[in-house]
Amino acid sequence: MDLQALSDFNLVAAHGGFGRASRVSGRSKATLSRRVAELEQSLGARLIERGSRSLRLTDEGRALHERTGGLLSEIAEAGEAVALGASTPRGRLRVSAPMVFAHVALGRIGARFALACPEVQLEIVAEDRKVDPVEDGYDLIIRIDPSPDEHLVGRRFLNDERLIVAAPDMPRPTPMTDGEDCAVRAVLLTTTPPTTVWRVGSGAEQDIVLRPEPVLRLSSLLMVRDAVLAGAGAALLPKLLVADDIAAGRLAFWGTHSGPSAEIWALQSSRRLIGAKVRAFLDVLEKAFPEKVFVPSL
Q1: pLDDT 10s digits, 71-115
Q2: Rounded Cα–Cα distance for residues 267 and 141 (Å)
Q3: Which residues are bridge partners to 257 per DSSP?
């Protein structure tokens, strides 16, 4: 049995189609289809029923996938273990990251990594969906405040504060008496609960409480930031998104939210060994935030 053809078959079976397997592996659909057809011919059995829009495994294909998929993974991991001793990172590295963090930081970080590790083909995908590093073919995923997951391991590389900001000409409300909350015109995410309040750490015994009254609800933090810059209202936004605007005077800083800061983690499947290319990327990532805090570029 041709192990490469068997590996291609398991790749297609695991990802549910030639197109998705092609995107994950970087190999063409035509090549994958040809290799699976060759495997079927050598075994004298149809493994995949191909439809116009979907495919399904035959009983023979399902049995072959269940019995060989784990074995091939172990072979691949054994090869990775041998390669761990290599001093030069090389190969393809796929990273998934949240939209805001990717747009604010990963362009520069990616450029530093590309210059430091020219033998690695780095691909960073900006997306806010929850991905699985194995099923979606990622070597590393970056998440904000991730839930505990026994299938993932990694490290926290950044704490990011949440800041209350507004356009410079927007009047900042002042509480009339201690403990009284202040209504403020606000731009909120569509997912923000209606009972939300903003507590501004003042250094006094009691925080200042602001009650946001939404004039606009938007589905992304990038849109919220743009609306605040245009003067629509105040907003609670991550420091990494607005630090440069504050430093340049485009936004006024009203205070730091007294709640917990956001934790940003780099994670990978617990079933995979940390290879040289992943270690190299993590080193560049952590060097960008030596104190685990975001510092504006201006």
Answers
A1: 777 676 666 656 555 567 888 899 999 999 999 999 999 999 999
A2: 5
A3: 200
Output DSSP code: residue 260: P
Tokens found for residue 242 = 């607005």
Enter the tokens of residue 161.
């504060």
| DSSP conformation class of 293 | B
Residues 6 or more apart from 217 whose CB is under 8 A from it?
Answer: 187, 188, 189, 190, 192
Dihedral sign, Cα of residue 69, residue 93, residue 17, residue 28: negative
| CA gap 3, 86 in Å, rounded | 25
Q: Cα angle at 193 between 192 and 194, to 5 degrees?
A: 115
What Å distances lie between residue 270 and 139, 209, 224, CA to CA?
Answer: 11, 42, 35
* 233 and 166 Cβ atoms separated by less than 8 Å: yes
pTM above 0.70, yes or no: no
> Which parts of the chain register pLDDT below 50?
297-298
Percent of the chain with pLDDT over 70: 87
CB 82 within 8 A of CB 55: no
Query: From CA 21, how far away is CA 148, in angstroms rounded?
Result: 28
End-to-end CA distance of the chain: 59
CB 48 within 8 A of CB 57: yes
Distance CA 108, CA 288 (A): 9
List Cβ<8 Å contacts ≥24 apart for 122-125: 122/93, 122/95, 122/281, 123/92, 123/93, 123/94, 123/95, 124/95, 124/96, 124/97, 125/94, 125/95, 125/96, 125/97
40/52 Cα distance (integer angstroms): 19
